[in-house]
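[stage:ingest] chain + small molecule (zinc ion)
[stage:ingest] validated
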Amino acid sequence: MEASVKPAFMNFRTIWLTLILSSCFILPGYTQSPSRTGVKAFPSRLKKPDKVTLSNLERHIHYLADSSLEGRRAGSPGEAAASGYISSEFARSGLRPGGDNGRWLQAFTIDDGRSIDSSTTFSVNDRPLVIGREFFPLAISAAGAVTGAPAIALQESGVPWFLDLRELIQVHGHSPHFDLENAIRAMAGVFAGKGATALIVYNSSKTPDNLSFDPRDRPAEAPIPVIYMTMAAKRKYLKDESASVDLKIKVAFAEKQRTAHNVLGMLDNGAPLTIVIGAHYDHLGHGEDSNTLYRGPGHPVFNGADDNASGVAGMIELARLLSASKLKANNYLFIAFSGEELGLFGSKYFVGHPTIDLKSVNYMVNLDMIGRLNDTTHALTVGGYGTSPAWAGAFKAGAGTAHLFSFRFDSSGLGPSDHTSFYRKDIPVLFFFTGIHSDYHKPGDSYEKINYTGELQVLKLVWSVVEELDKKGRLAFTRTRDASAQGIARFSVTLGILPDYSFSGSGVRADAVSEGRPAQAAGMRAGDVIVQLGEFPVTSLQNYMEALGKFKKGDKTTVKYRGGDESIERPVQF
Ligand SMILES: [Zn+2]
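[stage:predict] done
[stage:export] tokens:
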């Protein structure tokens, strides 16, 4: 899963998924490969209680993944509708509110960067320029108000100065590592030292400068206001370069924030220890946060049926089943996290502002994408397997359905989902995940594609683990050798393929090829297998990532791949 848009988290998630699925180990006795017909089928006849759970799962996922919830973006009305639904289901199961001040919700703020405040103005000879179309302050700009009457061609102390970016671009523009905005900030610093009170830049060259105001960008500030003026505006307002003009400048920024909510329900059995069962309920909305893998037109809704309406539905059903059960040796705190898609914001906030004593947390179970179990392989990834010695026992002894699955155990407590926040607080964690698919972070992740009976079986497995551990007291915590701590290859460029994590041959097989990316330009299609990148042979996901790490944006090289029986080599540019 490689996306062109790279919020840090996405990169981590890509690395994690690539690593985990290329380095999981398989427990003896748990056959894995689909080719092995040894994977037993799930019982076709369901008992009544299971039928109830199954129809509830469908009801929950249909509601949460309905387009009317607009993709449940954190802090949106869709999130509010979803949290209302979840808390009413919690109430129906007899849970009590576990959030702020006895309420279901725990609010937290998401920093959405900055916006240009509407009080920002720029006028030349009392003729105001149109913000956005004729001018805008750069993100490096200092806030402030400045007036002055400079001669455009002169650079005198005590007034704003002008700078044509033509030379900077012509001298440095070809270098892929040149950061124009950075250079402008440096020049603004020098000019300020010589008495400039503001800097107005424009670009008379034919080379585009790609400058814009990035709300998420929080670069170091220049000591003076810095405004970008379009060439059209420069021609309109600053025709005579020898003339002096009357300038009035005001730059102001506003913090862009939104409030998101975790939903918490407590099943209080009056026990000393509490088990946390969690699942994130936020998703991508219409892609406003640039964290989708969709490259098509428009702004479709991302319903996130598998990611993660499936996990939330599973959590709601576990709450119902546990509150009706005899498993009373622990309390259970059920948490629907928001902000996960932005970087685990909700779970990080909870462990930083816990509504119960974190020391009383026995362990945490995280359900994220459990709705697309493969009916042939029954492949199930279980993360955090190394975070407590108790886990191995629970799975081995699981009288439940463990024998019906082919497990991919990942020992690390770290991963691209909310259990990571708890692991970092030295709490044993388990993470259940039925695997990646080509609808991941795309509009196609809809409830028709959910494997409901598969999810039911995953829930029965989770139940059998919780049941097995009910009377075992506090689980011991083990810190794991986390892949990321071992200095995994870092890469900043990608070819634009979705690796097939189940491929066991030599090379990297593409499960999907993203439009408009280098791999597609090189004629690659889904199913093709990369065997070399430049001078670097590719035999596994691991050394593929290391090879990617050798290249930078703009670099040219070649990719060699197998397409059907053909061996193809093509030039690529990152
Ligand atoms: Zn997601």
